[in-house]
Design a protein that fits this description.
The chain is of the alpha/beta class. Helices cover 40% and strands 17% of the residues. It has helices spanning 6-11, 38-50, 61-81, 95-110, 129-138, 155-161, 184-193, 213-216, 241-246, 281-297, 299-318, 345-354, 367-372, 389-406, and strands at residues 19-20, 23-24, 26-27, 89-92, 116-120, 141-145, 166-172, 197-201, 220-224, 235-239, 257-260, 265-267, 323-325, 335-340, 357-358, 360-362, 378-382. It is globular, with a radius of gyration of 22 Å. It starts with 5 loop residues before the first helix and ends with a helix. 48% of the residues are buried.
């Protein structure tokens, strides 16, 4: 496995050169959003400076150029996920919209009162609330798979919840607040035995390991561009073509139609049936550039670097008296959530910010997780492949300073 040249890599991310209060930035909030390499910035800048035009609508050169770049990004996503075809790749604004699309289009069409939806206790709010809305609309019932004290999905309890009434299982691949990596292939296979469809929230998983939707055999999969070193405002819904064909449009407007009259509208073919209005063109181009960048660096070397950082960070933080990790799964991604006796996470976040360290504090849009571990919030250091062990040392030193301030 090739060793990453971190010095060269870090130069390629302009944000990493920032200073906060006169101190070098230590950015450890990558689960919230990742920084963007120059390749992404240049691709988007080129579109804005040299290629600005709408897509799918014009016959002039700029429109054809923008359309080609936009659709090339779709092909890059298709290849990245190993989907069967570009018609299975829907561009959305992000994972949240993608899940809402499935809940409202597939869910409202095929679920009825008494049907069951299975979620896990570690889900992000964006994979809870859309299903609660669907439940209130259809009378479908939500069942929740519990997690253990390590923050792991309890597979045996999941099997007990599965039944002939199960219609949809929607689970996170990698937990944003615990770092837990779920056994999604086993989850999918067990659901299919009962005839249920499965949606995988891969927002935190796209840089964890290669994703092959055909090998997983998931029915739907979602992710957001800004979690994979791309821009905000762009996301992906992968869906099996046969399912997407049966689903009605989620939004109405331009580009999702073939013809419109006041008596009848006929809808466009996939994937455009679900892409109403002017899309996020520059953002899609930026996402394509981000995927190209990730593939050039290699998911394998990136994962090796993050695993080393996770191991080192766990060791460093666990040496701090009064610090308790929240989320200690055996299969875990590079997320370190913790609490410190005598210091509220928000206070800790404020103190370490003074040292130039950016961590996330709060419930991380996973309030049920906080309730499960009986904490109001956690501090979270989430690591990307461009982080260093020295940055984790800075974090530990800053935490110790906070303990001194609060006499904790």
């Amino acid at each position: 496995m090739p060793v990453l040249d971190l010095k060269k890599i870090r130069v390629n991310f302009p944000n990493l050169r920032a200073e906060i209060y006169g101190k070098p930035l230590v950015y450890l909030d990558n689960a919230a959003t990742t920084f963007k390499p120059t390749e992404v910035l240049h691709a988007m800048d080129h579109h804005f400076r040299r290629g600005t035009s709408n897509v799918h609508r014009g016959v002039h050169f700029l429109s054809e150029q923008a359309t080609a770049a936009f659709e090339n990004a779709r092909r890059q996503v298709k290849e990245f996920l190993n989907a069967r075809g570009v018609q299975e790749i829907i561009f959305t604004s992000g994972s949240t919209e993608s899940i809402n699309l499935v809940a409202q289009s597939y869910g409202r069409s095929f679920l009825k009162s008494g049907d069951e939806i299975i979620l896990s206790h570690m889900e992000h709010h964006s994979n809870i609330v859309p299903w609660q809305i669907l439940s209130s609309q259809t009378g479908a019932v939500i069942k929740v798979v519990p997690i253990n004290d390590a923050g792991e999905f309890i597979f045996e309890e999941y099997l007990k919840l599965l039944s002939p009434k199960t219609r949809i299982v929607s689970v996170v691949y990698v937990s944003n607040s615990l770092g837990t990596v779920n056994p999604v292939k086993k989850i999918i296979d067990a659901a299919h035995v009962k005839g249920a469809k499965v949606l995988i929230d891969a927002a935190q998983a796209v840089t964890h390991a290669p994703i092959d939707v055909q090998a997983l055999d998931c029915d739907f999969l979602v992710f957001s561009g800004h979690k994979i070193f791309g821009p905000t405002g762009i996301g992906v819904l992968y869906g099996k073509e046969a399912l997407l064909e049966k689903m009605p449009p989620f939004k109405g407007g331009g580009d999702m139609i073939k013809s419109v009259s006041f008596s009848k509208t006929t809808y466009n073919s996939l994937p455009y049936k679900f892409e109403a209005g002017t899309p996020a063109i520059a953002e899609a181009i930026g996402l394509g550039a981000a995927i190209e960048y990730v593939q050039a660096v290699g998911l394998g070397p990136m994962a090796t670097q993050k695993n080393e950082l996770l191991e080192y960070g766990t060791s460093v933080l666990c040496k701090i008296p009064g610090l308790r990790l929240i989320g200690t799964a055996k299969a875990k991604s590079s997320i370190l959530s913790f609490v410190i006796e005598g210091i509220h996470p928000h206070d800790l976040g404020t103190i370490v910010d003074e040292d130039g360290v950016a961590i996330r504090t709060g419930h991380h849009c996973t309030q049920p997780v906080m309730e499960r571990f009986k904490v109001p919030a956690t501090a979270r250091a989430s690591l990307a492949f461009y982080n260093t062990k020295e940055e984790l040392d800075v974090l530990a030193k800053s935490i110790k300073r906070a303990k001194d301030i609060f006499h904790a």
